[in-house]
Amino acid sequence: MIFMIKNTWVPTLLRVVLGIIFLAHGISKFQMGLGNVEAWFSSMGVPGFMAYVAAIAEVVGGIMLIIGLLTRVVSALFIVLMIGAIVTVKLSAGLLGHDQVAGYELELSLILISVYLLASGPASLSVDRLIFNKRSAVQ
User: Fold this and answer.
1) Which of 20, 27, 46, 110 is deepest in the core (most CB within 10 A)?
2) How far lies 131's CA from each of 123, 126, 128, in Å?
3) The pTM is what?
4) Mean pLDDT of the chain
5) TM spans, by residue (predicted)?
């Protein structure tokens, strides 16, 4: 019984919380003003248009994860985004960062959750399950 609960709720909880985190980060970019985010990205050597790509992907993808729609696709997208963030911005600061510069420990954690969701797919509590009527890999 406890294993059935774990296999239903843990993947769902991971998916929903990951979605909330990305949604919050995307909303934050819009609140800062995408022009400001574009300038910030450019100052770090990241093409400015990526600010728009990241903000939209985080908001739309976050919502999609929260409801469990195209979980594997969104998880793969977030893996790519986080690897990009680590390689272009965070890697030089190291895992834990230094002084006032954050490291890449958060991005690494988000990648690992995304890898889990990519590998396992949506939990039974998801729109994916309703639409595609597939049994989840985790049951």
Assistant:
1) 110
2) 13, 9, 5
3) 0.86
4) 89
5) 12-30, 50-70, 77-96, 108-127
